[in-house]
Design a protein that fits this description.
Elements: H1 21-34, H2 41-62
Helix pairs in contact: 1-2
Length: 64
C-alpha cells in the first residue's frame, strides 16, 4: 500500500499545484480506494465529501 496523498485532504499543498477537475476526481477516487489501511475515518469522510463536491461541479459544468 502506498502512503497518503497529503495534498487532497488539505494537509499539505504546493502553491504551484493546479490540477484540472478530472485529475482531482481521479486522485480522490484513487485515495479513497486505499481506504482504512492509509486514512482515518475522518480523513475518508473528508475525501468522500470533496469527491462529491467535485463531481457535482463537473456535472454542472457539463450541463451548460
Amino acid at each position: 500500500m502506498t502512503a497518503k496523498n497529503l495534498r487532497l485532504p488539505a494537509i499539505e499543498r504546493s502553491p504551484a499545484w493546479q490540477p484540472d477537475i478530472h485529475e482531482t476526481i481521479s486522485e480522490l477516487k484513487s485515495e479513497l480506494e486505499k481506504g482504512a489501511a492509509v486514512y482515518t475515518l475522518t480523513e475518508m469522510e473528508k475525501l468522500a465529501g470533496k469527491l462529491a463536491e467535485y463531481e457535482t461541479m463537473l456535472e454542472r459544468l457539463n450541463s451548460h
